[in-house]
Amino acid sequence: MTDTELKHKHRAMWASGDYPAVAGDLVAPLGPVLVEAAGIGPGQRVLDVGAGTGNAAVPAARTGAEVTASDLTPELLRTGEQRSDVKLIWTEADAEALPFQDAEFDTVMSCIGVMFAPHHERAAAELLRVCRPGGTLALLSWTPEGFIGQMFAAMKPFAAPPPPGATPPPRWGDPAHLAELFGDRAVPLHTERRDLRVGHFRTAEAFVDYFKRNYGPTIAVYKNIAADPDRVAALDAALTDLAHRFDIGGGAMNWQYLLWTARRAG
């Protein structure tokens, strides 16, 4: 598979289902958390990478910052622009080859976005390149040991083989992996694991049904095994068991993420 084909595949995956519903129903609180951690304010030049429908970009713009929301999937950007109540720039862009100048932004952030770029080293290099020396890098990513990280682990045996050189998305939620990616080019300021409380699902089965209908990566895995009813049933069981294991009462779950901020060295 060529790099162009891989990007088209990723774009189609995130356009499938209804990610805007996922963003609104489940993860909306994360954007403001990242904006606050990054210290974004009036007049700052801010880039949100993997912005989706603007979960972090929109609250950043509300502070008075000059915000560019970039994403590989134009369908998500269009939805975000239609729903936004503030002015910002919406730009289709590949996180591994950003169409921006060196040192163009004061803050470069990503809220559960850049972590899904398959080649982590390329994406990290691009985040650094477009951030000015002394500027802020701010990332919020699902952890490997948290619910979403474990969901990807549960789906892995049923998924198509990853492309050569691809790294699992939840690795961005491991501080040691970030240290390898950024090295001495970024000086960490704050590293903290937190939980997002999700109470949207009354039952484990409701969670599985929702993700099968709405979440692109889950849709792609089920599509890969659609011709094998036994494997579909096995994946249903694995995801249902996962939701039961993370249930903290009444169907609510805690989804762990890593909040990481750093200063761009240089």
From TrEMBL:
Record keywords, A-Z: Methyltransferase, Transferase
Matches recorded under CDD domains: AdoMet_MTases (cd02440)
InterPro entries: Methyltransf_11, SAM-dependent_MTases_sf
Organism domain of life: Bacteria
Example GO BP: methylation
Record SUPFAM superfamilies: S-adenosyl-L-methionine-dependent methyltransferases
Sequence ranges assigned to domain Methyltransferase type in this UniProt record: 47-138
Gene3D superfamilies (UniProt xref): Vaccinia Virus protein VP39 (3.40.50.150)
Molecular-function annotations in GO: S-adenosylmethionine-dependent methyltransferase activity
Stated name of the protein: SAM-dependent methyltransferase
Organism field: Actinoplanes octamycinicus
